[in-house]
Structure formats: structure tokens, C-alpha cells
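Fig. S4 source data, part A: sequence.
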Amino acid sequence: MTPGPTNPWGPTGSNPAPSGLVGSVRATQAVGLGYRIPGPSGLRTAPDNPTTPNPESRLPPYTIIMISSLICLAAMQTTPFYDFVMTDIDGKPFAFKNLKGRAVLVVNVASKCGLTPQYEGLEALYRAHKDDGLVVLGFPANDFKGQEPGSEKEIKEFCTATYSVTFPMFSKVTVLGEKKAPLFAWLQKRSDRPDEEIEWNFGKFLINRRGEVVARFTPKTPPTDPAVKEAIKKALADK
């Protein structure tokens, strides 16, 4: 008895499918599994384990492009705010990556300004909302008529003794002109007034839990202002 034709893609003795159909179906399956498809003669031999990809297989170009696009998109969505490392008032590095997931109010402060009593309102905000995720950061700056002339040690002693400040304070920075600290250049450019310099001591920038600037307040707007409180409440609620 002459044996019937053998289906190279199925169990021995199974009914063969037309050769053209077998070739097209199996070629389609092989492509779906990521196989490199050889010439027509190669279609007569199937891998022993069709679930194991051929080591010579390659990702299709469109897949590589899609993966690259997703990586670029993720990088663009990570804002540089968390890349900053500033020096605190004790001379130690403070990495902003530790602020991830918190709302942050950044303020340029001064000890001998008519607005210096705003320290009291800033401290009150910090104590009221620090457990909710708010952090206030104070940056002494001597840019406005020399109203922050002291050393870091003197500034710390003044803030602690006069206003019982407990929120993080930093070493002196410049917030104006060509020597402006990169942090304040970044904050200004991402605010709703990117072309306007900080007007005076106690300018305020509010950053949400994702590291985005969501509000900017003038120095004359006190921390007790309803607009400031409402913006902070909204930033804290946006999780």
C-alpha cells in the first residue's frame, strides 16, 4: 500500500491541506511568532517547538519605532524639578527628588524687608498642611536693596528666634539677572508670567505633586490670602 502524502505541519497520518494553503497559513503563523522566513524551500520544514522564537528573529521596524516613541514620551513627562539639588542653610545638599509626590511652595525670602512678617504666614501654612503633603522652601536672596545681608547662620538664627520657622531653609541664592539660580530661572519660565522677573522679596511659586508649576503669586500677596490657600488646597487634592 502506497502511503498517502504527509502533512509536514501536522501529526503524522493527518489529512494534508493543499500545499498552497499550508504554505501561506504557516508562513503567516511564523511571521506572527517573530520567525525569519526563508525561501520557499524552507517552508517545507517547521521548527520542532513552534513556541520558541528563532534566535535569528528580529523585531519589526515599526515595533522598534513604537517602543522608542514611548520611551521618549515618558522622558518628556518627567519634569526637571526633581533633578535639582540645592544647598540647605546648614551647607548640606538637598535633593529635590525627595519632594516627589508633595506640593511645594518655593519662596525667596529676606530678613530686613517690609514683607518679612510673611514668615509667620508661611510657617502657619506649613504647620497646617505638612501632614497633607505640603512643603514650604525658603530661599534667602539679597537681590532687592540688600535686604538679606547676613550669613546663613545669622539668617537661620533670625528665622528661628523671631518666627519659629521649621520649614526647610536654604543657602542664599540670586533670583535676578544673568546670575539667577537655575532653579528660579526654571520656575519663572514655567509660570504664567515667564518673561517677568521676580518683583521683590517673597515671590511665591506653587508646584503640584507632579513637579509642575501651577501658580505664581506676587510678593505683596500674603500667604494668608484666600487665593493662595485655595491654590494649595487644589494642589494637595490633585493626587
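Fig. S4 source data, part B ends here. The radius of gyration is 32 Å.
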